[in-house]
Amino acid sequence: MSNKPTLFTSLSPALLHLYDASNSVVVIIDVLRATSTIATALFNGARSVIPVDSVSRCMEIGRQIEGITAGERDGKIAEGLEYGNSPFEYPREFVAGKTLVLTTTNGTRLLHMALEKGAREIVTGSFPNLSAVCDHLLEMKQNVILGCAAWKDRVNIEDTLFAGAVINQVKEHFTINCDSSHLAEVMYEKAKKDLFGFLKKNDASHYHRLMNFELEKDIRYCLTQDGANVLPIYMEGKLVVK
Amino acid sequence: MSNKPTLFTSLSPALLHLYDASNSVVVIIDVLRATSTIATALFNGARSVIPVDSVSRCMEIGRQIEGITAGERDGKIAEGLEYGNSPFEYPREFVAGKTLVLTTTNGTRLLHMALEKGAREIVTGSFPNLSAVCDHLLEMKQNVILGCAAWKDRVNIEDTLFAGAVINQVKEHFTINCDSSHLAEVMYEKAKKDLFGFLKKNDASHYHRLMNFELEKDIRYCLTQDGANVLPIYMEGKLVVK
C-alpha cells in the first residue's frame, strides 16, 4: 500500500456521490466561465465572491451587502442583475475591494453539492489559476476530488481538460486508481499544445455556445494558464483568496 | 438543421437519464467481459442469452428452462452457478443450441435501466462484434445512445474506447452534439493501434482487476475486433441473434 493520498476525478455532478468528499479537498471546475471569472475577480482585488444558485438570491444578497450582482442565463445578463459572467467585466479598477455576488448554474450547484457532502475543503480551479491549485494540492497532502461542473450533468471537454492539466502536474504525489483521471490526462496530453484548437476541432458543445455569443476572447482567456493565479477557497459562504 | 439521427454517449449508468432512451437504439457496452461473452456465446450457436441481475434469479431461471447458469462475483464463479464470465467457456461444441442464463453486475443493470426507460431497441456491443453493431446502426437510421456499463457507476476506459470505436465508424451518418462522444473518439484514436497496451499504460482499473485473476487471454480477446461478429438484440427477456 502506498501512503500517498488519493486523487479522483468526478466528470459530472451526477457522479460526485461515488467519491468520499467528506475526506477530501474538492476542486470545483467550471472552466467556461464561472471558475475562471472567480479567480480573475479575486486576483484583481475583489474582497470575496459569493456563489449563489438563483437570480433572486443573488439580488437579495446583493442588496444586503451592497455587492455587485452578476450572472447570466442563456448567454445574457439575467434580468435584475448588473453584470455578466465574463472575466473581462472585472478589472482591478472596478472590482478591487468589492464583493461579487455571482450566480451560475453548473459551478454553483456543484459547489453546494460538495458542501452538503461535507467536503473537508472546497477550492475553485480554472486554467487562469492552474498553478495555484496544483501548489495548494501538493502542499495539503490530502485526498483530492477534481469535480467537473459539466453542463446540466453532461460531461464536457473543457472541464475534463482542466482536470487532466492538474493531474499532469501533481500525479507523482497521489495514488490515482481512477479511470476518469487517466482519461482526463490522456485528453490533456493530446490537447495541451492548442487547447482552443482542440475544443474547436472536437466540436465541444460549450465552445459553440459561447462562439455563437461572440465570446472567442473569453474562451481564449479561460484556456490560458496562470493569468489570475490565486487560490479561491470557500469559507463561511464566501470564496476568498487563501 | 440536419436530418441525420442523433448519437449520444452515456459514460456511466448514472448518466443514462440525461438522454432520451425512449426514442433511441441503446447499445449496452460492457467490454470486460459481459457483452464480449454474450456475443461469443451467440456467435457459437447459443439459442439465447438471458441476462439476470442476481445469482438467485439466475439459478431459478436456469432450473425452469434447463439453461446453463453462469456468473461471477469477485472474480470467481458465483456459488450455486455452473460457469463463469469468460468467453472461452462457451465454445460451439458446448454452447450450440443451449440457453445461457448470465448474471453480471454492471452490464445487466444498465440493460434493465434502458428497458425501464422504454428504449426503442436494445442491442449489446463489444469489440468482438464491433462491425455487426456499426452495420446495424447505419441500417437502422435511428437515434442512438451508446451506453457504457462502467464499474459501479464509475467511468471506465475500456467501455469508453468501444464507444469511440463505434463513433469512429459511423459518425458521418449522425448528428453528434455530445462532448462525451467526442471525448470517446479522441481516446479511441489515441489507443486504437494497441488497445491492450493502452489499458496497461493508462492503468485502467479493470485491466488490473482481471490481470490479478490471470485473465490476460480474456482481455486480449475482448479487445480484438470481430471475433464473434453477430448482433445480440433484446427481445422478450432474451438476447438473440438478429
List the helices and strands and how they pair.
Two copies of one chain form a homodimer.
Chain A: E1 7-10, E2 24-29, H1 34-43, E3 48-52, H2 55-65, E4 68-73, E5 76-77, H3 92-95, E6 99-103, H4 106-116, E7 121-125, H5 130-140, E8 143-148, H6 157-170, H7 179-191, H8 195-201, H9 205-212, H10 216-222, E9 232-235, E10 238-241
Parallel strand pairs in A: 1-8, 2-7, 2-8, 3-6, 4-6
Antiparallel strand pairs in A: 4-5, 9-10
Helix pairs in contact in A: 5-6, 6-7
A few lines on this structure:
The structure is a homodimer of 242-residue chains. The first copy, chain A, is α/β, with parallel strands linked by helices and 242 residues long.
Description:
2 copies of one chain form a homodimer. The first copy, chain A, has 242 residues and is α/β, with parallel strands linked by helices. Chain A has a single domain (7-241), classed as putative 2-phosphosulfolactate phosphatase (Alpha-Beta Complex). Chain A is built from 10 helices and 10 strands. In chain A, the strands form 3 sheets. Chain A has a 4-stranded parallel sheet, sandwiched between helices. A 4-stranded mixed sheet of chain A has the order 3-6-4-5. Chain A has a two-stranded antiparallel sheet with strand order 9-10. The mean pLDDT of chain A is 95.
List keywords for this structure.
four-stranded mixed sheet, globular, 10 strands, alpha/beta, putative 2-phosphosulfolactate phosphatase, about 240 residues, four-stranded parallel sheet, homodimer
